[in-house]
Design a protein that fits this description.
- It is a single chain.
- The chain contains 16 helices and 15 strands.
- It is α+β, with helices and mostly antiparallel strands.
- It has two domains: 286 residues, no CATH class; 148 residues, no CATH class.
- The strands form six sheets. A three-stranded antiparallel β-sheet has the order 2-1-3. Strands 4-10-7 form a three-stranded antiparallel β-sheet, with no helix packed on it.
- A hairpin with a 4-residue loop joins strand 1 and strand 2.
- Helix 11 packs antiparallel against helix 12.
- The N and C termini lie far apart (87 Å).
- 42% of the residues are buried.
């Protein structure tokens, strides 16, 4: 099978008028003036997340801007498809999916047993799950053959997200289930080209990330040479951030069949049904500061996707430096803050797989989009500190609501197993729109040098109201055998007292009323 990922029209996309089609990578700017391509259109959300990283990596590797002026010019006036084709063809030999020579992100040969192509896809039941008959929600044997397009997406998705798969089966360069954060545009910069280019670094910055002296092709594309057992940042060219190959897989192309792809439902004459995987892949040694992922400053690891979804509570560390939590934004986000202009409207797109720790078992795919307000450098420090305190106060109140409901439900809440984080999720979700409204109001107040106490007070009230609403909705729905009206009333009062207490108000810079003489006398012995 000959299927080159630079030459073939294999990437599913959607144009502005709703037309669905497939393109080569260099056709991303095709029809830009009349009917631009606005989004990827893969059959699975994880494929979309991987394909955008594939395209960003390809442009960063072969077509990176030399300086900020060039970056800004091509954001407004993109290159032609032929210009991109000329650049991409320089690495074309590294992107053969089949054939007898080096194959894209695959080992040269394998002696391992054949596995169903279904196992290459993240989220399908593993061998042990099937042996234990625990594939209750995601059933086995749903996918028997897939087309070359979906096979390429599946291989790249595995390498980008790979979790620990047992002894010798390595995690991705960023760890198992890394969180990816990208800049995306609204209205003016909403095409697929804009999404790619917004996340491409100036070449001078990019080449300083690892060891740009490592110029051999296998130091960018590891499948083009001998696979290494262990690599540090000084052993790789910066391009390998995008083309890391921690797993040793190989598509089996000996029994291609014709039919309908079980993933994308497209007709193909070259459906692939088997693959092989060997242990002892490449271990990427931290730190590996991939430009598309936020980073843990304390542990030197990329931030991994966590249970409970993505929302404004993750703002710290994704958009601004989180000094308390020890997280810093992805390099592309950091660079974009300095590039952004006052009349630009942008958002942050965050996504990733949440895996069971130390297991090759995906719990959920999460993704979210959140606005990125332009903030002038003169007020940015104060703005970011105030935003940090907004989030910290909501974290305190969400946790207090959870504890209060636990106190209301159980006679011995400390002995109850289970974290009850559904309370937090409900709280975060219901206050998200208020958070973004508060950010806009806060920015306006700072720009006009006005006191923001009105905005902070309104935020505090909104949090207290939501915590009380959730408590009143859930408090009486605990275990019947443990129901105690008196305990519920006490828990509700304590919820209100804490939420209006000194700690929260100090966080928000709100006045703390002095206790009356009568109150003080009550506490005297």
């Amino acid at each position: 099978m000959q299927f080159n990922l630079i030459d073939e029209e294999w990437i599913p996309v959607k144009r502005r008028d709703g037309t669905e089609t497939r393109i080569t990578p260099w056709q991303v700017t095709d029809g830009f003036a009349e009917n631009p391509i606005v989004s990827l259109n893969a059959p699975r959300p994880d494929f979309n997340g991987s394909l955008i990283q594939f395209l960003i990596g390809l442009v960063q590797t072969t077509f990176a801007p030399a300086h900020p002026i060039e970056w800004k010019q091509k954001l407004k006036t993109p290159p032609s498809p032929n210009q991109l084709k000329d650049a991409f063809m320089t690495v074309q030999p590294a992107f053969e999916l089949g054939g007898d020579k080096a194959r894209f992100m695959q080992i040269a040969d394998s002696v391992s047993e054949m596995e169903s192509i279904e196992s290459l896809l993240i989220g399908t039941p593993g061998q042990k799950t099937c042996e234990d008959n625990k594939d209750h929600f995601v059933k086995r044997n749903q996918i028997s053959a897939i087309c070359p397009s979906c096979s390429a997406s599946a291989i790249f998705t595995l390498h980008c997200n790979a979790s620990a798969g047992g002894r010798g089966y390595m995690t991705s360069l960023r760890g198992g289930g890394p969180l990816t954060t990208l800049i995306i545009g609204d209205e003016r910069f909403d095409s697929l080209w804009h999404t790619i280019w917004l996340n491409v670094l100036d070449n001078r910055i990019f080449l300083n990330l690892c060891n740009s002296n490592k110029n051999a092709i296998e130091e960018s594309f590891p499948w083009m040479g001998n696979i290494k057992a262990k690599l540090t940042e000084q052993d790789i060219h910066p391009s390998q951030y995008y083309w890391a190959m921690p797993r040793r897989v190989r598509l089996y192309l000996g029994n291609l069949i014709s039919g309908i792809c079980d993933v994308c439902s497209k007709d193909s004459g070259e459906l692939i049904s088997k693959y092989q995987e060997e242990p002892n892949g490449t271990k990427y040694v931290e730190p590996m500061k991939h430009p598309l992922s936020p980073f843990n400053t304390k542990s030197t690891k990329a931030v991994l996707t966590q249970p409970g979804g993505l929302g404004y509570r993750h703002w710290l560390g994704l958009v601004t430096l989180d000094t308390t939590g020890g997280k810093e934004p992805a390099r592309v986000v950091h660079e974009f803050i300095d590039r952004q202009e006052s009349n630009w409207e942008f958002r942050l797109w965050a996504f990733g797989y949440d895996f069971v720790p130390k297991q090759d078992k995906a719990r959920c795919w999460y993704e979210a989009k959140m606005p990125l307000n332009y903030v002038a450098a003169s007020i940015r420090g104060e703005y970011e500190q105030l935003v940090a305190n907004l989030i910290k106060s909501s974290t305190e109140i969400a946790g207090n609501a959870r504890s209060a409901i636990k106190e209301a439900w159980f006679r011995r809440p400390g002995e109850v197993k289970g974290d009850m984080f559904f309370v937090d999720s409900m709280f975060w979700q219901n206050t998200e729109s208020i958070f973004y409204e508060t950010l806009s109001r806060l920015k306006i107040m700072l720009e006009s040098s006005s006191d923001s106490i009105v905005v902070r007070s309104a935020w505090h009230k909104a949090l207290c109201d939501e915590a009380l609403r959730i408590f009143d909705m859930l408090a009486w729905n605990g275990p019947v055998e443990d129901t105690d009206p008196k305990r519920i009333v006490i828990a509700r009062k304590e919820l209100q007292t804490y939420n209006n207490g000194k700690k929260i108000k100090e966080l928000l810079g709100l006045p703390i009323p002095k206790k009356s003489t009568k109150e003080k006398k009550k506490k005297l012995p």
